[in-house]
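S1.2 Input.
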Amino acid sequence: MYYILFISMQLEPGEQVIWSEFPMSRYRRNATIGLSILGVIFLLTVIFAFLGVMFIVIGLVMYFLLRSANQYVVTNRRAMHLKFGKVVREVPLNTPNLQVSLVNPQYIETRLAGQHVVQDVIFLQNGMELLRFSKVHKGDELIARLRSMGFVSA
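S1.3 Output.
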């Protein structure tokens, strides 16, 4: 049993999660952070204190729902795109002629995190895209983990 916040996902016997990531749009993330900041500001004022508590609660609930709404998981047997704990797309790692590559690097600069790179991870078989993990921050880590398991990719 693998738990994603409050949602559980069944793994096959002997299957272990080796990598996971929560891709989140920076606009959605900024909206949830903004709501929480507004909540703190309103909480500091006496008149709008109740409204501040509500904004903080709404911001936190939105943040956790957005994280569980979209997740990429790679186990020792398969790669999956999950939405609310349900598998949307899945690719077994023992697929013949499977290639895993990092593509489309984008350089993002933020005040809090500084400069960082997001990339897409694609799973290809004979030139056809089977699965794409969009805008992940830890794509290099995934490739390194797959190589350490003996998986050779392009």
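S1.4 Remarks. The chain has three helices and nine strands.
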